[in-house]
Amino acid sequence: MRATPVGEAHMACRVLAPTSISRDNDGGVFAAGAGSFLDERTTVAITLAQAIRNAIAAEEAAERFYLTMAGSAGNDGVRRTLVGIAAEEREHATRLEELAAAVIQGTLPERADGLVAIENSPAGAESDGMDLQQALELAIEAENSAVLYYDALAGSCTGDASAFFEMVGKQEEAHAETIRGILRQVGVG
């Protein structure tokens, strides 16, 4: 992927953020409570580098969540679909790392700041105690949150970076629709 380098002056992005924000004992910022998913009410400025780091962490968490759900799915078709979504989330993380190498001057932050919980909330949820319907409904909410995040990034960037974020947002939207289909298939949606 050919990407246009983004200078420091253009690296700040305004992205949607959760409404419930707290600080941990180390001074780190994290989202908490039901407001953990992105909504359309709050915006916050973060660097493109931090936005990409957050997205990579979220994609990796989403991959783990879908693999966990797949492992507990009783239906082979549902299992295969969830494993496929997990593979797409892994691909998103890989492509985000490639994008970062192409557009970020310097290195990515060491860890996600937690300010923007994109898809990572499902992985942090107590999925062991959820039935399939609850886990799928949570996954739809997370995918919708990811769509908002990637749409905000697409609108904040230019060139190949903008096109990439737009494409990933559309794929996350397709994941939500696929999961709605699973809910219908298993008779709960």
Observed structural traits:
two-stranded antiparallel ribbon, mainly alpha, Ferritin, 5 helices, 189 residues, 8% strand
Description:
By secondary structure, the chain is mainly α. It has a single domain, classed as Ferritin (Up-down Bundle). It has five helices and four strands, in the order ββββααααα. The strands form two sheets. A two-stranded antiparallel sheet has the order 1-4. A hairpin with a 5-residue loop joins strand 2 and strand 3. Helix 1 runs antiparallel to helix 2, helix 2 runs antiparallel to helix 5 and helix 4 runs antiparallel to helix 5. The longest helix is centred in the middle third of the chain and has 28 residues. The chain is elongated, with a radius of gyration of 16 Å.
